[in-house]
Predict the 3D structure of the following.
Amino acid sequence: MAQGLRAAIDFLLYEWLRVQTLATRARYAEHSRETFDAVLDTCERIARDKYAPFNRLVDTEEPRFDGERVILPAATHEAWRAYADSGMLCAAQDYAIGGMQLPYVVEAAGNAFFAAASVSIGAGMLTVGNANLLMAHGTAAQQRAFALPQFAGRFAGTMCLSEPQAGSSLSDIATRAVPDGPGHEDDPLGPRYRLRGHKMWISAGEHELTENIVHLVLAKIPGADGRLPAGVKGISLFIVPKWLVDRDGRPTGQRNDVALVGLNHKCGWRGTPNTLLNFGEGRFPVAGAGVGSGLDGQGAGAIGYRVGAAGDGLRQMFHMMNEARIGVGMAATMLGMAGYLASLDYARTRQQGRRLGPAGKDPAQPPVRIIEHADVKRMLLAQKAYCEGALALELYCARLVDELRTGDAEAAQQAHLLLELLTPIAKSWPSEWCLEANSLAIQVHGGYGYTRDFPVEQYWRDNRLNMIHEGTHGIQAQDLLGRKVLMQGGSALRALRARIDATAGRAGALPEWAQASAVLQQAWQRIEGAAHAAWASGDPTEALANAVPYMQAFGHGVIAWLWLDVACATVGREDPASVGRRQACHYFFRYELPKIDAWLAVVQARDRTCADMPEEAF
Amino acid sequence: MAQGLRAAIDFLLYEWLRVQTLATRARYAEHSRETFDAVLDTCERIARDKYAPFNRLVDTEEPRFDGERVILPAATHEAWRAYADSGMLCAAQDYAIGGMQLPYVVEAAGNAFFAAASVSIGAGMLTVGNANLLMAHGTAAQQRAFALPQFAGRFAGTMCLSEPQAGSSLSDIATRAVPDGPGHEDDPLGPRYRLRGHKMWISAGEHELTENIVHLVLAKIPGADGRLPAGVKGISLFIVPKWLVDRDGRPTGQRNDVALVGLNHKCGWRGTPNTLLNFGEGRFPVAGAGVGSGLDGQGAGAIGYRVGAAGDGLRQMFHMMNEARIGVGMAATMLGMAGYLASLDYARTRQQGRRLGPAGKDPAQPPVRIIEHADVKRMLLAQKAYCEGALALELYCARLVDELRTGDAEAAQQAHLLLELLTPIAKSWPSEWCLEANSLAIQVHGGYGYTRDFPVEQYWRDNRLNMIHEGTHGIQAQDLLGRKVLMQGGSALRALRARIDATAGRAGALPEWAQASAVLQQAWQRIEGAAHAAWASGDPTEALANAVPYMQAFGHGVIAWLWLDVACATVGREDPASVGRRQACHYFFRYELPKIDAWLAVVQARDRTCADMPEEAF
């Protein structure tokens, strides 16, 4: 399996995106294709040795809570150690703090191997995202105490946003943060607060993989009247470590008042403990100068250090959320790839049935391998088109992140616009279509695919999470049609169209792709036209009633564009992989892109069939 | 939940299909809406009391094999007993043998409640199908010994078709049946054979719910040269009881040589043990007059009694398969309905977020229930349109079975044609779209839907089986486009079009539905045209390369027709349920039916993109 994945990644990185040219930039001057390859080799090896063999194990041996500790399989501990030792937690960081100064696109490609091998073992994405947020918004002391130990793998990180009553709607969070008595502003680790509240759906919220866990917690600071400010503008961000630390980040041995209430038992993605946490309810009372002694068992609150300005929490958290959304998209993509490659292996060996037509009429003929059946080829080619298309999207977005960080001002501005627009697609499209790919992988296996003796049913279960976490499908669609296509007077959409038109221009000059080029441009005229029609009345309830179908059409339009761009990169090559990429591109244009008309029709018409459905009529 | 299901069934049975009029037929003369209602009441009650409370239990407490016995939860035993005691195993049978002489459509509606409550507890469908096959093809002695005890719930039945190397391709089965010595033709229970072979994917293949298990086994009788005949024409059908019986069907206490090799561990549908069985390998040797003593531990073979003529096995088994396919479609539909109704309940109570537009801008306003969000309404209305549309299809097909059995010659012939054509749709469409409904039910629940604390993730896992068993999606599509649309010079398709045109004619006279009526007829012109285009070259490899997209389009066309027909049955009614049915119909025409163009385009073009993909290019 790993071979097919590596080949797909190598082609996209070096032949399509030409990331080796990043070495001409000052930040990456010590890099080259050789150093990038060495990173990919390492990731591939660790994923193969420490992740893949245990993917089923972490599904069957779910995290358990014995009342005191969360128990994870030994394999999870070893995988974490190997991952941390690889340096990947610090891959993109400066040499000065022990990083590799890798481009983000190479980091993302390296991490893809772990997601394909066992998506739920790893908590690396959250840890890196947490530390990156602190590097962007924390003080030097906060970075030293909380970020650097995460890059080193000694601490792990979480993001604590949702609450039982506040999932998608963060404005309704009720976790309360009050200043921790006189002098609370003077703590070397940042303004010190006491937090009380419940946080739900916290991945890796409790475990013993690391010395400490750094929770980044959204909470509200009550006003003078004691009430929590309404809306998202009242949200602040806090560092709440599981174990309190000294100013250098060394755990003091004093537990902070963060307690596991329970584990969520999930359909899939079971290797990662998902938790409900209580902050400041007195399970681990912390004495202090602040309100209440904390020694009466009631709990004075968990100690938290504010990051940045009060009320700025959501904006800061979004720094982490955007990376997380690309990470989710990549995870969905890799689950899809894993299923595709597993079903391809199966189809190449499993014998069943005979060819259609006269040649197959003779039952005395031996059966053929199922890859010889057209419908099995269809299911394989669909998977390839979905998953390698999604991989192109994720790597393209990752490359844009590098442009944002190291491009010139104009290029960085373009990259910013494109990323804003493409992030909801990078999150949503693989979540939907690589899940569909996993279903096809089951189907290729027949009954065997439905058993737990083969890996594909787990990929499918694991992948179902991705349309939910880090912003649901509906949230992504509102972000796309409600904000991103409108932003800066439509300039993000114009930036995307410029890139699409450039691809179409190149493809239009090639006989094999001239028709697809025209089809792509027509499709994008309809996608743009539908957005205008949706907003024609200016009423968001009309415009957004069909935001999800719009996002589906937009996503298919993006993937069609990227496939055409990839196909152009294969011109003149007749090796099997290039032939296969071109065929996948044809598949996407012939079987998939035509689906957008059905989705766009309801957007264009501002169809109110759903919105007008009376509740009592369901 | 049950309330919404009952209302949907009542409407379709009595207001739409008007099944109460069946009471004018001689066979059903003692029936009336009152007796039908009494059956539905009983089913609803038993399903609520004995099935629904244990649906999660049978998922977590999977069948276990301790080396001797298959252990099922006590609840499964109690559910079986209650089901058998209800008389539903014998519902459609003659009064003379203890049956209720119920119309099949009422039997199917009653069984729907069990599928919705816990799809995998029940093995009733296989038992009834097995016994029905014997009533159609067995001798009087076979019926008395093996069918009647199944109708009474003392025995259970299986269908043993697949083998490890022969799943979809039954022509490759290798189970061998040899005459059991001199006089084998004279056994009162039928010609006696010894069987040896392996059977895979056998649902309810081993358990202790009943005194005995009646396996209906496909096997081949070797020719004079000792070789098995090639192809499906060499397949014969045998009754192989787990415990040998005397001529009255009383178990003799002598075990037959049928041994459980192991249980399959599935993604879902876990309440039903799914088995690999060894026939005649000597685990339970049976002495006899035949080849080999059977006492040397080698095994002379399991004793089996041939049903009907040698070589006629597959045709006879298909008698059972067609019922099984409608049963699978109904199971898929009920899983969809269960998810729909669960997510509807959730959406009516869960509070999250605020309305779009100015009214929602004020964060001091309390959150709304999520059913007030247009995108949640969209996900609920899609589920309703999929699942109630599928329910209409299943009940329509069940009603056709009654017409086949009790209609006049012309009506029976029409029903036969329509059933042949619609069976692959009745099997495949709910398997695909009610699974999609289950995914939407998870999505409505957000993160909670992904946990095992809510039922929807299990419905989704359970439902994934339905595209696989009883003929995969690909097999159904080949059946549809390769056989059924062609049969008798296209007369099945003409029969269907006549019904569709009749509906369109009625709808065309109604202002609300005139446009949908025209759209439906245009859609069916395209569906028919695509079939002609597919077969234009007469080459099955070209015609069938896109059989699945064709089936998807055909299925959407069928459901659109049925929704329009249902909508016509609500004319003049303004109660909420009628409003809801009309809105679901509008949804289907506006959001779903337009999808057929993308599917048909590749059929029409005899697109070879998939078929031409070189294997090495994947």
In short: Residues 289-297 of chain A have pLDDT under 50 and may be disordered. The longest helix of chain A spans residues 313-349. Chain A touches chain B through 101 residues (CB under 8 Å). The two ends of chain A are 46 Å apart (CA to CA).
